[in-house]
Amino acid sequence: MAATAQQPERKISIIPEPESIVEKSGYYVLPDEVVVACPSGNEGAFVTGLLKEKLSLAPPGKKVVVKRNSSSANIELILNRKADEKIGDEGYTLNVTQQKISIRANKPAGLLYGVQTFFSAVTTTDREQQKRRKCYMAGPFC
Predict the structure, then answer these.
(1) What is the pLDDT of residue 118?
(2) Beta strand residue intervals within 8-110, DSSP E
(3) Is 0.85 surpassed by the pTM of this model?
(4) Does residue 119 fall inside a structural domain?
(5) Which residues, in sequence order, are CB contacts of 50 under 8 Å at separation 6+?
(6) Any idea what the CATH number is for the domain that residue 102 is in?
(7) What is the pLDDT of residue 32?
(8) Do residues 76 and 91 touch, judged by C-beta distance below 8 A?
(9) Which three-class secondary structure state does DSSP give residue 141?
């Protein structure tokens, strides 16, 4: 006798709940060396440091390189040059594709909230059991 079980579909659960979420299929896998693009100047220094620390220390631990305004980054932290009135001072947009993760905000506070949402949405999984562990930006985001 054989039995099969389906795993329930994972719904995005983020607190506080975002104003809107556009769900798509797929996921983004963080590489072992993560390049983070940060805004120039000191405005985003705290958020960049927090992101670097959490990615470095949390299992499976990533090597994190921070670069100023790098278009080849895995994670982009972007302060809008022109304010997006829809998101205000503390809002953000988090966009995940199969190529990268982008967090945009009008102010550093928005970047901080975007990074917090990023960490609440990241899952660590053993897809190949003991072979290797990777951090996934879990779908359905990208």
Answers:
(1) 86
(2) 28-29, 33-38, 63-68, 75-79, 92-96, 101-105
(3) no
(4) yes
(5) 112, 115
(6) 3.30.379.10
(7) 86
(8) no
(9) coil
Q: Report the number of distinct structural domains present in the chain.
A: 1
Looking at residue 131, its pLDDT comes to 34
Q: Inform me whether the pLDDT recorded for 6 exceeds 60.
A: no
Sorted by sequence, the CB contacts under 8 Å of residue 96 that are 6+ apart come out as 28, 102, 137, 141, 142
The residue among 14, 12, 19, 11 whose CA lies nearest residue 93 is: 19
Let me know if residue 13 belongs to a domain.
no
Q: Are 134 and 16 in contact (CB under 8 A)?
A: no
Q: Tokens 């299992």 sit at which residue? A: 59
Q: Are 113 and 90 in contact (CB under 8 A)?
A: yes
Predicted confidence (pLDDT) at residue 128 exceeds the cutoff of 60: no
Give the pLDDT band (50/70/90) at residue 15.
low
Residue 65 included in any domain: yes
Range of the domain at 116: 31-137
Q: Is residue 15 part of a domain?
A: no
What are phi and psi for residue 109, nearest 5 degrees?
A: -60, -40
